[in-house]
Structure prediction request, 456 residues.
Amino acid sequence: MSAELNKAKIDVSLYLVLDPDLCGGEAAMVETAKIAAQNGATVVQLRAPNWKKGLWLQCAQQLKAVLAPLNVPLIINDHVDIALAVDADGVHVGQSDIPVQVVRQLIGPNKIVGLSTNNLANVEQLLTPEIANCIDYIGVGPVYPTSTKKDALPVISSAEMAAMFASTGSLPAVAIGGIGSGKIAPLIAAGADGVAVVSAICGQADVALATRNLGAELQAARAQSNAN
Amino acid sequence: MSAELNKAKIDVSLYLVLDPDLCGGEAAMVETAKIAAQNGATVVQLRAPNWKKGLWLQCAQQLKAVLAPLNVPLIINDHVDIALAVDADGVHVGQSDIPVQVVRQLIGPNKIVGLSTNNLANVEQLLTPEIANCIDYIGVGPVYPTSTKKDALPVISSAEMAAMFASTGSLPAVAIGGIGSGKIAPLIAAGADGVAVVSAICGQADVALATRNLGAELQAARAQSNAN
Prediction:
């Protein structure tokens, strides 16, 4: 499995991380995911750290049912067993979760594995072939202050963020943390391949419009970045 | 796989459920498990609901290393992925966790699967062959008030407990919840195949002595129960 093959697995352009509380419960969250996927979200992650795993499984099954027909991958945060049980498209883990080598062994070669990074050292540790072949993309964050992740690390400085994006090689890198309307351009300019959002979609009065607006802002930021 | 074959998989006589806080941290917990297993504990469960899964994995690996040479099975609470990653002997789930049919599919036919039950209806739901073939033992509890499980359900009445034990057929049933010195005989008399303990071993000044004393009390209770 080469890094180029990995890269083809996932489009991180507009990456929705679900929040059941912001969405207003499980059913509303599934509906949010569906509308976002219909309006430009390129990947959806289920993240519900306070849930029992019976609810995780049930909701993951529902998300898979609405996302698969739209060809939008479903990523499960932390729990490889839930991903295996619903045949999800992949798993996202943090630095304190199951190590990516173990995740890859459990989930097999064809699924997507993502890893959160918070500093340049985190990224540099991924550049050995053994590790790079275990992951398909990285999250870089938090890039802004965030209120939706209780155990969030310190915000990454602009300089370190740019160094992190410059160090990822061909591995797709998605910025995360406090990203919303008006905040995308600096991240794309710094080298992000995409942006992950939570509250900019979850709980918005018009999820379709919010998603389309974020997509338009992303396209404009890319055009501006390419022109420079 | 018949229920009789399942029964041979596990001896629930003296079932230790670990608590990292009571033990005083990860290293002390592994040592507690080792000493308990050397002194009569017949099975050990790792349960750490507040831990990140990197620590779960690391500790499960350490527990497997000390328990396997003693032929004492290691059961992982909730997380099938951790059990798969360390090739643990089994998984224990509650009513709100991954359903036992899904656990069985993920973990394969040869591992131990246990399920918590809190009332007679929970037990009666297990008596269809489809479900019975997915589990190897049940937990029945809480049989006494407990402080070590924050989301514990109401204590089961003596009458309901006896009905539950009478309904399990050949499935081993272990009583759990607030069990310690002096509290074992009524449970064995009511039909329990074994007792699960937390604070009666975790955090005890002399883990070896505490475990041996519980084992002696269990044997005496069984002798008394057989004599009646």
The radius of gyration of chain B is 16 Å.
